[in-house]
Structures are given as structure tokens and as C-alpha cells.
Amino acid sequence: MNKDMYKPIPIYNNVSWDLTSEACHILLISPSGAGKTVFLCYLAAMVLKRGHKILLIDGKNTAFGATFKSIGIQVATNPNEIIVMLENLVEEMEQVYKTHFSSDCIDLDTNFAKLKLSATVLIWDEVLSGLDSGSPEQRKKMTSLLKQLALKSRMSGTGILVLTSQRILSTDLPKSITEQCQTRFLMGANISEEVYHVTLGGYKKDLASGYHGGVGKGYTITPTTGLTYFEAPYMDFSKINFKELLERLVHKNNE
User: For residue 110, what are the contacts with CB-CB under 8 A and spacing of at least 6?
Assistant: First the structure.
């Protein structure tokens, strides 16, 4: 087993992403050009490096999704594919509970890490766009399945969520989903007060040192750090062949 499998993923200073914590689900809000894709590449690579699995929803059929798909990572790009992926993930999650959490010896704080299980992380890039791409019935189905994962996947590790959007309003996603995303990142320079408030709580005008967001820069809030400035880890694609990196990580996990 990978000795670092359950170690938190470092982000910036004392900010990290702990897949085994109550704050495992991520909500990332980042306008176009603010560095979201680079940040997601880092998170995905670190998840794979720790020996876990990645699934990706890329409703806009971007080069980001195509890169992952080209090395065999499952990518959903349309409402039907998204629903099938979510259904399979919920079914897998329920099977993990049935198999590993039904014993009388399970403690209240038992989770997938204590059972030495790997996690499955679902990255849904542009979640609002993906939901809007389906019919009303498909959107309802996708939202229902997403709720189940948000509410139940933390303990099983199957269906840990990374949800991204360029902006978000209070009515865009049910609270049953957003309230489970206890790790939140907001990047970019031109962030409205409303988006800041919905994402992080409070208001930009209340920041003592002023707002200092930009490309790869912004603010995060987690249960352990509270509200703090952060800079996303940078991957220089002129020096790193990201596709080859992913291939090596996936191959290592499959050995």
C-alpha cells in the first residue's frame, strides 16, 4: 500500500485537502482564465499519486477532459453519460457500505481509510453547465444522484466530490449539496460581492487587507483554517508533460 495514501494533499501554507475528513468535498469557483484548470490538474495528479481513482465529468468537451480520456480515465460528456456515471458511482458506494460497514465491530468513526480502502474522486468541471445541458427530468435525476453522493460518500470514500463553476448563486445548487462542500476555493480578480458571499460567507469589503484575488490566487475556507488567502499550486506545462505524468500515475496504480 502507498504509505502516503491517506495523507492530506498540500495546497498552500497550512491549507490542505484531507480526503478522509468531513471536509473532503470541494467547491471551486473560478471565472474563466483564473487558473482553475491548472489547479484541477494538480488535484487530480495528487489523488492518483496517492493511489486513488479519478472520474471526470466534462460537459463542455474540453482539452482537459480529452487528456484524461486519452489515457483511459472514465469521462462523461453528455447528460446520458453523466447519469450513468453517477448511478454507477452511487451503486458502488452502496456496495461499499453493504460489504464493509455492516459488521458489529465497526466504530462510529470508521471510514474508508481505517478499512484500508481506496477512494474514488469525482471531478465535475462546470457542474452548473452540466446540469443545464439536460432536460428538466435529466437535471432532476442528476441533482438527486449528486445529493446522495454529497450526503453519503464521505465515509465510504466512493464519490468524493470536486465541483467547479465559473460563478454560483444561492439558488444554483440545493443546500443539501453545497453545505456538504466544506472545503471551498474562490479564485480570480473580478469576483462580485454576491459570488464571494455565497461561496465563502461574509463580504469582500470586510477583508482587513482588502481583496487580493487573481490568476491562481484567491481565498479558501475550511473547518480547520477558517477564511484564508491562498495561492493554487502551479504546474508549468512548458516543463511538465501532463499527459505522460497521468499515464505514469495510472499505470503505477494498476500494477
Answer: 101, 155
Residue 148: partners with Cβ closer than 8 Å, 6 or more residues away: 90, 93
pTM: 0.96
Distance CA 22, CA 254 (A): 28
Nearest to 81 by CA among 132, 142, 143: 142
- Count Cβ atoms within 10 A of the Cβ of residue 116 and give its class: 0-12 exposed, 13-18 middle, 19 or more buried: exposed
User: Degrees (nearest 5) of the Cα angle 184, 198, 150?
Assistant: 50
β-bridge partners, 220? 185, 228
Asked if 94 contacts 148 with a C-beta cutoff of 8 angstroms, the reply is no
Residue 147 cell numbers, joined: 445529493
Give the residue ranges of the chain where pLDDT is below 70. Answer: 1, 103-106, 108
Burial of 106 (0-12, 13-18, 19+ CB in 10 A): middle
Are 209 and 54 in contact, with CB atoms under 8 Å apart? no
